[in-house]
Each structure stands twice: as structure tokens, then as C-alpha cells.
Structures
1.
Amino acid sequence: MKACTPATEFLRIKTLAEQGVPQAQHSLGFMYFNGDGVPQSHELAMAWYRQAANAGLAHAQYNLGVMYQKGQGVEADFAEAARWYRLAAEQGYAAAQYNLGWLYAKGHGLPQDTEQARHWFGEAAEQGDPGAQNNLGMMYETGKGVPQDAALAVHWYRKAAVQGYARAQFNLALRFDKGDGVEQDSAQAIDWLRQAAAQGHAPAQFNLALRHDKGDGVPQDSVQAIRWYRAAAEQGHVSSQFNLGLIYDNGHGVPRDEREALEWYLRAAAQGHAAAQNNVGQRHEHGQGVPRDPAAAAEWYRKAALQGFPSAQYNLGLLYDSGNGVARDERIAIDWYRQAAEQGHLRARFELALRYETGRGVAQDLRAALAWYQRAAEQDYAPAQYNLGLLHDRDDGPAPSVELANGWYRKAAEQGHALAQFTLALRHDNGQGVPRDFTQAFAWYRKAAQQGHARAQLNVGLMYFAGQGTAPDMAQASHWFMLAERNGEAAAGRYLREANARQGGALVPLAGAPVA
């Protein structure tokens, strides 16, 4: 017996279809839709699906709904799609029940109705449709259209996950990770992540990459991190693209590669990732991996700044402040500084405080300066802490207070701010707002002196010379006088000669002495 050829099979099905057999009409529509043995034609596919659908064939009704939803062979029409899905759904066709639920959830083609969405997802889920099971899980997780119930969410996610549905595997992993609706179990979380990632689910791949990147629940492994970031990035997952850029930028687990970093930043930036846009701007501003182009930098900063990214707002402000790549405009610069500062950007807050203190580009306002210095100081920014101390020290300032000034000087000094260390030393030296304490004064002078502060070097020398706050030591005194003189303190020369004389005129080199 000879096997049917595709042409013979087509003629057989076409004959049956023309005789009004619904199954044959659906099969003929399917052949035209896929170009199976005939030239592909969505229009003819729709015509034959419609005849089968009008005869009540559920899967033809479903396929007709899909074509209306996607605009295949006809103008897209969600309402008409919903009509055909409903006819199939009411016959128990699970895929149509799922799609009808989705249209209700989104409000496409019919009024948004979470109760109807839950109903149709539930009907499909009970028949084992994994997409509907996953969506039902999401509804129970968020309490959208149903009472929130984490355990029921896990129940439905698991049903879909064991069928290999990647989205449900990812959602189940997150529940195990947080212990939400199920006992917390990192090993189970990672296992479900791996299953979803292996199927190409980009969010799972990103999550798995993050874990390998940080050593979170798995051994730190940059090779595995890059593998999974890349798998997700190649699918357009924007955070993976950005993180790959960071990895190549910092040489974390791979040789540092500015060109590769820029490529991934650009791909993320093109999708609107604000941090990537800011990084692309920095590369154009500084000529890092690309020719230096401040105008291009300004455009990239602007894209990120308009999304509210504070670092880009600050960087754009700097360009307007200097007229670099854009026309110089102090007013626009200050506006960008303010937007960044209001979002907590440290340097923008400090810059805005400086403007108000000095009246540069804005009306001088010491109270506003104090407020912005305070915000930056509370973020442990030592220059702001020092300047806040200076402002509290001013008798004409908005809040004169020696005690507050000294408190901020100490905070800055403890972070290594040389001017604050010198100022705090002076306070202990003179007993200004603190008990007079030469030992404390000497300790703070020395810290500032070791950072090259010339006046502090002179004062350290004087305290060694006089034995004040420390034991007398002419060799040490000479050393510090010499550094102070070298750094411009003219008075240090006279003391240096006297200290040398007191030790017999020979300046003995000090092993391990601080470098100016």
C-alpha cells in the first residue's frame, strides 16, 4: 500500500473540509497557517478556522481567538479574541480558559475583572495548565482578586514547577529563599533556580549569577557568575548586561577589559538602564575606552538624569558648571545639583551647601547652607562635617555653638580630615569648648602633621621642644621643624636651629619618621 504524499493528504483534507467536516476544516486551517504542504496564508487559515469554530470545534475557536489577539491575517481585536476564547473555554478547553483569564486580568477587550481572571485561571489550573497554575499562584501571593495566601501560592507554583514550567520554578525558588508560605530552604531555592535557569529563564539566570557573584548560598565563583549573567544578557536582560559591564570594568574574575565593559554598558543603556547610561556618560567624559567627547557625555548623563538617577544629575550639573560639552549655565547646574541632593547624593548636597554659604549662583543663605551641610555630614562625609563645624563656629551664623562645632570637628578628625584634626588640636591646646589637654592636643597635631599640615608640623615640633603633652625630644622636634620649614612655615627655621644646637648641632635621621 502506497503512503500518502503531502499533496494527496492535502487534497483528502480539503475534500473533507469542503464537505463540512469540522475537524478537516480545522486541519486545513492549520496547514495554511504553518505553510504545511501549501503556501502559507493566514487569511485562508482564518477562513477555515472560522468554519470549524462556527461548527463548535473548541480548538478552532481557540486558534481563531489567538489570531484575533495577535493580529494574524486580520486586524488585532481583543474583544473578538475574547468572544472566541469564551466559546472554547465554556467547552472546557484549558488553553482558551487561560487566555480568557489573561484578558480579564489585563482588561484587554473586556473590562478588567480579577474575579473573572481568577475563575478562568482556576478552571485551567484544575486541568493541569501550568501557566494558569503559575498565574493563580501569583494572585494568591499578591492578594489580587483573592485573599492573600502564601501557602496557596506555593501550592500552585509547585504544581506548575514540577511540570517544568520555568516561571513557576523561579517563583517557587523565591518563596523558598524568603521562607514565604513554606519553610525557608536555601538549597531548595537554588535547586529550583537552576532548573529555571537551565530552561533559559532570564530572571532565574540573573538571580543565579548574583549568588555566584556574591557567594550567597553557593561558593563564590566568578566564572559561573559570568556564565549566567551572559546567558541572561544575551536574551536582553538589562540588569545582567549592566552587571557584566561592571565585572569587565572592575576585572572581577576576568581580565579587566574596558572595551567589553563599554559594550555591555551600551546594550543596557540602549534599553534605558539609568546606571548604565551614567557609566557610558563617564566614559565619554573622560575618554575611557572611547574618544573623549563631553557633548556625548552630557547626552548620556541627561538620559539617566531625566529618569531621576542622582549620580547622573550631579555629573550633568558639573558639566553645566564648567561649560564642558554644554553651554556654561550655573543656574541649570544648581538645579541638577538640587535634584540629586534631594535624593541623598552626598557630593551634590555638599556642593549645594557650598553655594548657599558663599552665595555663588544663588542668594547667600547660611541657614540653607547649614541644612545641606548637616545632611551631608550625617552621611559621614568628613569635609561636610568640618564645614558644618566652621559654620557653627561663626558668631554671625544661623546656630553659633562651640560645643556643636567641636563635635563635628571631632567626627571629621576621626575620619582623617587634616584640617579638622588641626582645629581639634587647637581647641585642646587652648581649652576652647573642651578641657585644656596638651596630651590630646599633641595627638591631634601629630595626626594632622603626618598628613603634611605645615602648621601642625610646627606645633608638633614645639611640643617636643617644650615637652608639652609629650616627653621632650630634640631629635623629634628638629625633624618636625624641618618638615614645617620645607612646607612653608618660615618660623620653623629659627626653632630648627635651636633644637639642633641643643642636641650638639647634629641632626640625627629618624628611622621610620613620617614623610611630609
2.
Amino acid sequence: MKTNLICVLLMLFSSLGFAASKKTTFEIKDGHFYRNGEVVSIHAGEMHYARIPHQYWRHRLQMMKGMGLNTVATYVFWNLHETEPGKWDFSGDKNLAEYIRIAGEEGMMVILRPGPYVCAEWEYGGYPWWLQNIPGMEIRRDNPAFLERTKAYIERLYQEVGDLQCTKGGPIVMVQCENEFGSYVAQRKDIPLEEHRAYNAKIKQQLADAGFNVPLFTSDGSWLFEGGTTEGALPTANGESDIENLKKVVDQYHGGKGPYMVAEFYPGWLSHWAEPFPQVSASEIARQTEAYLKNDVSFNFYMVHGGTNFGFTSGANYDKRRDIQPDMTSYDYDAPISEAGWVTPKYDSIRNVMKRYVKYAIPDAPAPNPVIEIPSIKLTKVADVLALTESTTPVTNNDPQTFEQLNQGYGYVLYTRHFNQPISGTLEIPGLRDYAVVYVDGEKVGVLNRNTQTYSMEIDVPFNATLEILVENMGRINYGSEIVHNTKGIISPVTIAGKEITGGWNMYRLPMSEAPDLQTLKRNVYTIGSTQANKLKDCPAIYEGTFTLDQTGDTFIDMEAWGKGIIFINGINIGRYWQVGPQQTLYIPGVWLKKGENKITIFEQLNETVQSEVSTVKQPVLMKLK
């Protein structure tokens, strides 16, 4: 009995000692980062949990370690978690706490970037779309309605991850305060600098009040520190390759000393639909990595592994030539670790440099996940999307309603209007957000496109005919002053021949939040190859098929022969495709496939060719611009 008691006590003390050994400290002092009392440099890579199936998180973190990194940085996507006001979801691929725990198990430090604004080529920069429906709401400024919501978000986030800070034995060592705020200050000169600073300070205080007590930092271009820094947070410089300038500007805003860190070191760059895929050479990145290592500059590769903008998560930019530049589904980013988690020449180049400079052991990269090819997936059914008007109750209004007015965040809305008398002339929709296929009595007559600034076309609507406008939200703007103008659908009057068309508008909601069920379309579902199916040419259609697998693995579905739309695999929206490129394939993670029967559903908006099959390939096509 006495022996058993001694054993129990020994086990208890042993476990307590183990727990104590897991406790870590992380602080900024004397111009350096200190972990457990020793000077440490941060060699980080940005990798977002929501852009990777959770089953692959550990593999990707091991890939980072194999490249020589000791830290993972991640944004937190507010809109991913608060899907409706007060409705929170941190499960499955959204389980941020589990992602952080796995990083800790792999021996990595974690940098948390909670925003609440994140940019990240992510829908609305991470803001929930429904914020736009709150009266008096002004995002990203010292606005009570907005700050009430950011406070609720930050407090709820703390419930999930607060205990994972290093101050409580977890791997989180730093938390970012706001994000690239200096850019916004420069873009919004209509807001006084004092108000900008007051807002930034309040976000910092909300983080502290919630319980975040690890070191805070800000990140901005080095020329934007005046507006972006906030007292008590370490300033870091994004994209700064000039080390002397980095040290000069950090010294200016941090009491004349470091540590010096580039919070976003770009080994690649973001990519838009209808534009060339950007590439950055491996040798250039290796040289810059070595320069940082030689000069004791900490860094974070943005992105080290981009992953995928699954579903409707991709955001958008804009410039003078394009009123919207929608981001592609792939977030490969020309990163060192490819979209599917593969080693690249850039990965090898960085790893070779890291091995020469770091004192810790660098493990081998894990083996890649299996890859399969499916030569042919037969499609068996196709449904007429315009026929939804027969079985769905519309919202009616004198004027077209926005997505937000329809309480719909994403997807599509079909706007229809019946004309008792003929009308012809120029159809103009200056408030199109973002892409529309226009039909008259089910016959396609044209396409309007915010990306190409095409807001008008000639139209002829005969007597007793119906105008149908299928509008797609291609992702809300995530960067720049236009982020405050992010409603979707038709947001201004529709005119034909200069006459405003009012009265009698019907709006059919197509959020595509789940894979369409062809059973709901009943008599408007046809067998592929039938006369009725062939008549759906140039009409929006939903295709369905099944395929059987003996083994699963990652693969890439080839959509080059298709037009524009989205794909569901076993009920999961894997993202958008668009014939303009440069992305022609979509990544399908093997963990979303299963042995036995699988189901594919494709919503094709243009349907210029009636399809009968689709196939997958083993290599992605991301650089084929049409």
C-alpha cells in the first residue's frame, strides 16, 4: 500500500514537473526577442488554418519545420466564425484552437493575427458581411456600433485561444494589433489622424481587456508607420528588403532599438482572375532570406503555404482599369510550399540557406500526400436553373434589392422583371456587383461584368416578355478605401433607353450555401444527352454525376472546357472556376473524397457547351491565361 502511494506521488510530481517544463516566457527587451530568458529570432511562415483541410494541418506544419522555420503565423477570420450575429462556429476546419495546439505539439511558436481586419485576399477582409446591415455602422473607425461588435468578437476569440498563450503554457508568443492600419490611414485622409489613432488604441485596449497579455505588434509598410503604429506595440515592416531602412524606421518608433522584424516577407504574390499569374524567383528569395539571417532580422514568409480559397471565401481588389479584381480560388501564391503541400525549388533554396545559419536541427520534409487521376467522371443529370422561378417564391419589390437587403451574404441572385409592353435600347446597370448574365425569356442576350467595367449593352425586350438577370457576388473588396462600399447584387437603378425600370421586380435567392438538390427542381431535371438537356445551351445549369474510387488522394479537376461557376464535391464547395484563367484546375483534397461512391455537382453559369463529363489531373494548371 505504502509502495503504491509512493508511486502515485512520484507520478504526480513527475507530471507537475512536465507541465512546468512546458511553460514558456516570451518577451521583448533590450532590442531582442527573449524566449525562456534566451535571445531568439523568429523565423516564421504565414499559413492559414481555413485554407487547408484540418486533416492536413499537421502535415503542413511539418513541411514548415522541414524548411527550417520555428514559428507559424496565422490570421483569424472573423466572418468565418461569426456567420450570423451572435452565432459562432469554431468546429472542423474552423477549429483555430486545435490548429494552434498542433503547432505547439510540433514544437513551433505561434503568432496570432486577429485583426479584426485582416486583408489576406479574403472575403471583405475578414469582416462579416452582415455588419453592413447594422444602422449607424462604420467599419474600421472610432464608431460605437462597430467597436461594440469588435469587442464581442475579440472576447469570443479569447474564449477559444486565450489559454494557448505562452503566459499560460501555450505556443502563442505574439498577437498583432489591427493590421496594416497605416495603409488605411493613408487611404482615408477624410478621417482625421486623431480619430484613426483613437480607433487603433481602442482595438489594442480591447485585446488587453479580453486577456491577451503576450507582446503586441503592428505591421505596415515602413513608410506608413506614422499612421499605423500604436504605443506599446512593436512596429514591424511589411515587404521591407532594405535592412538599414528597416532598422532606421523601427528605431524611430520604438525608442531607438529593435528587435527588427519583417512581418510580411513576400516569397510570391497574390493572383487575380483574368490577369497573369505573378512569379518570384527562388534565387531572389534565398538571397533576401540570407540577408535577414546575417543581420539578425526576424521575418515571416507571407505566404509560406497559401492553400485554397474554398467556397466563397476569396476576396477582391480593384484598380483604375478594373472596378473589381476578384482573387482566384487557388491561393498558391507561388509560395515555397505549393497549394497541395508539395516541396518546390523555392522551398529547397530557402531550406539550404536556413541550414547554414540556424543552430537548431532541421528535419526532413514529410512525404507528400498521395495524388490520383480520374480520367472521366460521367455526368448523368442536368437541371435548368432559370426554372427555379417555377418552384421558388421570390422576394418582390419596386426596385432591385441588394444581397444584404435580401439577407444573403454570398452566391447568386436571379432578378426578373416582366414587361407588358415592348422596350428596347441600352440596358444600363452601373450598380452591378459583380457579374451578370442577361436573358430575355430564357434566351441569353449578353454578359455584364464589373471586372471589365462593362455595365451596359443593347437589348430588345418584346411584348409580354421577361427580363432575367443572374447576378454573381465575386467576392467583397478586402483592401483599400473602397472596402466601405461592399454591398452586392444590383445596388442602383436599372435603366433601358434612359428610362428607370421600377415596379414588379422579383428576386430569387441562390446562396449556394449547400450543394443544390436536383430533387427540388423536379420536372426541370433532364438526362444528359436528351433533347431537353441539349436545349439548355447558353442557359445556367446544374450538372450532377457520381464516380467510384478504389483509392483516394489529392487531385485537380480540369475545368478548361467549361465557362464559369462553382463545384461541389460530396457536398463541399471547392470554389469558383472561370474560363478566362489563369487558373484552369481546382484542387480537390483527398480527404474530401472517399472509397466507393462520390458525388459531384457543378453550377455552370454560361453553359456555352452542354457537357457530359469532366476529368481530373495530377498537376495543377494555374498560369494559362485566355
